[in-house]
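Ticket #4471: structure output looks truncated?

Reporter: J.K.
Steps to reproduce: submitted the chain below (132 residues) through the standard prediction queue, then opened the result file.
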Amino acid sequence: MNKNINVDLFQTVDFISHAGLPLKWKIECDALSDDEWKTIAKMIREYEDQNWQYAVGIPTGATRLGEILTTYGTGSVKDPVLIVDDVYTTGKSFIDFEEKHYKDKKVIKWAVFARKPPTENVKVLFQLPAKT
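Returned output as attached by the reporter:
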């Protein structure tokens, strides 16, 4: 990201999610600096009990996070692959990505933010409560 441009992490904006849902606000992770991504990666490493072979970020929002988390990987084919996403909304991104790339591989799934409690065995650093 160009550090000369100010981007808000939390934005009031109409947009369509990966799952096709119309949403009224957005968590724009392009606002995060490289140092912030490194800290988030460190947090995930601290909270994830399993080792992983390497990490991959779901494009495009979590690509950089996947690159950083790979530095914590073991490189061992015996370990699962860590799949990460920046924002979890419905789980469709994880389902689509895993089905396309890791159907026959054991995976660990993490998201930085979740707009609701996740399904799909996704662990989350920062999670909004369920709407009542």
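Triage note (M.O.): checked the attachment and the full token line is present. Residues 33-127 form a domain with the Rossmann fold fold (CATH 3.40.50.2020).
Status: closed, working as intended.
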